[in-house]
Amino acid sequence: MALNHAPRGSRSASVKDVAAAAGVSLGTVSNVLNRPDRVSTPTRERVERAMADLGFVRNESARQLRAGTSRTLAYVVLDAGNPFFTDVADGMDSAAEQAGLSLVLCNSGQRADREAAHLALFQQQRVQGLLVTPVDPESPSLDAVRDRGTPVVIVDRTRTGSAFCSVAVDDVLGGRIAIEHLLDRGHTRIAFVGGPPDLGQVRDRLVGSRAAWADAGLPEGDLTETLTPTLDVEAGREAGARIAGLPKSRRPTAAFCANDMTALGLLQHAIGNGVRVPEDLAIVGYDDIQFAGAAAVPLTSVRQPRTELGRAAAELAIDEATNPAHEHQQVIFTPELVARESTRH
Amino acid sequence: MALNHAPRGSRSASVKDVAAAAGVSLGTVSNVLNRPDRVSTPTRERVERAMADLGFVRNESARQLRAGTSRTLAYVVLDAGNPFFTDVADGMDSAAEQAGLSLVLCNSGQRADREAAHLALFQQQRVQGLLVTPVDPESPSLDAVRDRGTPVVIVDRTRTGSAFCSVAVDDVLGGRIAIEHLLDRGHTRIAFVGGPPDLGQVRDRLVGSRAAWADAGLPEGDLTETLTPTLDVEAGREAGARIAGLPKSRRPTAAFCANDMTALGLLQHAIGNGVRVPEDLAIVGYDDIQFAGAAAVPLTSVRQPRTELGRAAAELAIDEATNPAHEHQQVIFTPELVARESTRH
DNA sequence: GGCAGTGATTGAAAGGTTTCACTCACGGGG
DNA sequence: CCCCGTGAGTGAAACCTTTCAATCACTGCC
Fold this sequence. Notes:
The structure is a homodimer.
Chain A: H1 15-22, H2 26-34, H3 41-54, H4 60-67, E1 72-77, H5 83-98, E2 102-107, H6 112-124, E3 129-132, H7 140-147, E4 152-155, E5 165-169, H8 171-184, E6 190-194, H9 200-215, E7 223-227, H10 233-244, E8 254-257, H11 260-272, E9 282-287, H12 290-293, E10 300-303, H13 306-322, E11 330-333, E12 336-338
The structure holds a DNA duplex.
């Protein structure tokens, strides 16, 4: 039994060392690694044993340099703290696993500079495909990466034109079904809560809301907008205070929040101030994060098919990387309403 | 202006191409990349221009193969869906950034096979350091990686012996301060909620709870244990039902949950069944995830210094990778109680 | 007994970068 | 005027693996 501990500083064993130890040529060791069926059983076992004894670890850089192909897919996440993206990544992970690839993640934390740094790194690493939920989907830096030969798929965002594959959810429809659900429940004064209004997601959800409202023939002014600077819990709390401050005659009986975080904040404000949910105020959220169902009053929410989103994105990237006949596609998924206590009346 | 779009299939530009285009030697291009100060300004500009024109992207595999050193740190996360780990990763990220490294993540999703696959990949990629929150901290596969020369730091877990650097939080102390807080509030019948009991974290928190209880000289039987099979929301709900079913004389007036998810489930059950929090039942959680403060009744929770945990882990890995005099350390952080409504009486 | 076919193994080239010892030209000091 | 030091740039070797054409040793068949 030879030593299998690589002391600090000592160069780790290479195929050459393994070949020498096993008394075979270098090519044979490579065959054991890549086409074990071409090697006779006794030699293979001898080589495998030598590898174990020497603590051989294949050098991926050298492999990739020579073979020209990497075995990883990378996802630059917009905000790793948002459970939504975690589920998206899960979907990617399973698609990658199926294709024999590994998925690695980096978090941009909404900072364009970090996003750029991560994109550059992965590009240099020659990953098979680059999945990204960009800070700004129109950013020319995405074009730069694609132009230099790395397949890029835009996730949960869309981009004008069709120079990229992208995967997203129909947020206009999402806004529509949220409002239609509340109309079904008999509400005729509804607040849309969210912002900033120039955020693509918020804008689309609002557009869908207005369309549903118009279709129902209700007075335009009764769909009010409570704009928030962000989409977090604090914003929801604060919106709750503003709504509660309205005179009863003009106060909405239901609120549609542009995401679940905001809805949770609104719910917290309500419960803390004796506003009954759903009796006094019905609430619909968006995203259906895990905590929506776990809230004090389980939240009705618009669910996006997160896992499928990720899976589709990864599959597109793999196709773009391997299929010469690949054509860019913009996949749009359909959201779905999950009804829970917060609108059960 | 030359073309800077690499058509599919065309080999991308190499240093050699850049050198030719700029009319300099290969070594000079490398100098521009790695030691720009050794190159005269005019030549440097000529080379940079050639790079831009050709859309040159440095091949990281080749760089790493030759230079022998990688520029990345990797973290194999136990459960990317748990916001706790996200914050840990944030801390690592900032330490990495400071050291000029990139942090990449992989999710094991609690599956030992995936963990092993990720470890193997990163090992082959010769990452500078490998951070891991393992499914099983005692697993010999961790030793194998370390023995083959990659620095390994165990995160949020501890391991017997001191063959590894590790970073964790004192969960015994965490359990103690949770119970002490409830004792301060005058509770004398308390339920410990969590499980499975062989999970290291759960065990330690329970040990600390019992110690605090014993120190207070209270009757042993009045610290009851409501064991759950997991630490999720569902488990908390179900524990809530069990507690509510107890005769009033034996029913605890407070619960300490082994994590926030379970506490949220318990809270949800309480609110849904007319149990007032904290009047009828005070609740203390653990982890202080973002949603603890956002709950209907904001949760008192034991906070772990998550970001610092990650930062320390990354720093240890970097030290082990670069400092020949490195010695393994087991860093233990101190948790801290964050008091909120759920125990305010 | 020779030959074709087959399966196992070999050896050298190639892949893109960094490194380092070296050359070259130039200016200043003795 | 010569020599030396200096700054700029060069060229070949090295890093480790994969690939592929070529070699070798057999087996079974005519």
